[in-house]
Specification:
Two copies of one chain form a homodimer. By secondary structure, chain A is of the alpha+beta class. Chain A has two domains: 35 residues; 132 residues, Nucleoside Triphosphate Pyrophosphohydrolase, CATH 3.90.79.10. Chain A is 20% helix and 43% strand. Chain A contains three helices and twelve strands, in the order βββββββαβββββαα. A four-stranded mixed beta sheet of chain A has the order 7-4-10-9, sandwiched between helices. In chain A, strands 1-2-3 form a three-stranded antiparallel beta sheet, with no helix packed on it. In chain A, strands 6-5-12 form a three-stranded antiparallel beta sheet. The first copy, chain A, is elongated. The model of chain A has no long low-confidence stretch (mean pLDDT 95). The interface between A and B is large, with 64 and 64 residues.
Chain lengths: 178, 178
């Protein structure tokens, strides 16, 4: 199998959420090429399903795209944090619901051409109301939807976030809830 | 509607594929925060469908995740390039097939929390065999699959790339081909 051996690594930036490095790699024909790589700690996305089968979504402004997006709740892994614990924590922080009934659906790479970011998706059921605790730089609005509304919004271009599209379509196709 | 006003922009890195900048933004409570933003030119993904209803996939090594991934053909927009022209070009370069029968499916942001990368998905039919012309640092293997095999591979965790998962699930759910 083809791989790309790292000849040299240049660390460009160490940030709050991401790091940037540029690797010089050796290709199969022995030529060299550069790979720009955004390092990310990984994240989880949660599909919170209420007792009457609605999905709890969050709306928030996303500076990189200068748009307010409708998304499933999600958040970055903390150091040494298990994805399922991260899912419980982010569910509570962003929506104010607790759940001990999480089910793993799948994981994916958001953009493996330039980043190692991986997101694991969980459903969360038997939700218990508690108090939301958003991060101090997060402004989040909560909304509930039927899954078929969300499926239609994806088709119409009104849901644009990859993790949300994958979460909704995979719950529809794989989770056998609906 | 809440937005985040840019107070200052620091350009960290200008690369071959991505740029990195850090924006200082003003939040609704007038506090400041930093946003790390990876600028990307945007890309297309193509779902090439053969006359006997198979989907042409590409396998390639992805340095950021240190894995060989099975993906739909895809590529970055060149300067001033229309997405549909980019889709035709990348289809030919990566698979060796030409098509004038492209259909737009949907667009999405790969990771809007830190990047503006947007990918537009097209199906391509009535494929005509020509000669593949991969970029000089691309090593690509071509494989054909039934869509239901791909749907199963997503569920089993054997397809991990976001644009590929969205392409296959959205063609299955929306393109009315199958």
């Amino acid at each position: 199998m083809i791989t790309e051996r790292t000849i040299k690594t240049d660390k460009i930036y160490q940030g709050k959420i991401i790091n940037l490095r540029v690797d010089t790699v050796e290709l199969p024909d022995k030529k060299y090429s550069k790979r720009e790589i955004v390092e990310h700690p990984g994240a989880v996305a949660i599909v919170p399903i209420t007792n009457n089968n609605k999905i709890i979504m969050v709306k928030q402004y996303r500076k990189p795209v200068e748009e307010t997006l409708l998304e499933v709740p999600a958040g970055k892994l903390e150091i040494n944090e298990e994805p399922i614990e991260c899912a419980k924590r982010e569910l509570l922080e962003e929506t104010g619901y607790k759940s001990e009934d999480l089910e793993y659906i799948l994981s994916f790479y958001t953009s493996p051409g330039f980043s190692n970011e991986s997101i694991s998706i969980y459903t969360a059921r038997n939700l218990v109301k508690d108090i939301a605790q958003p991060d101090e730089d997060e402004y989040i609005e909560i909304q509930e939807y039927e899954i078929d509304e969300l499926i239609k919004m994806i088709q119409e271009g009104n849901i644009k976030d990859a993790k949300t599209i994958i979460s909704i379509l995979s719950v529809k196709n794989y989770a056998k809830l609906y």
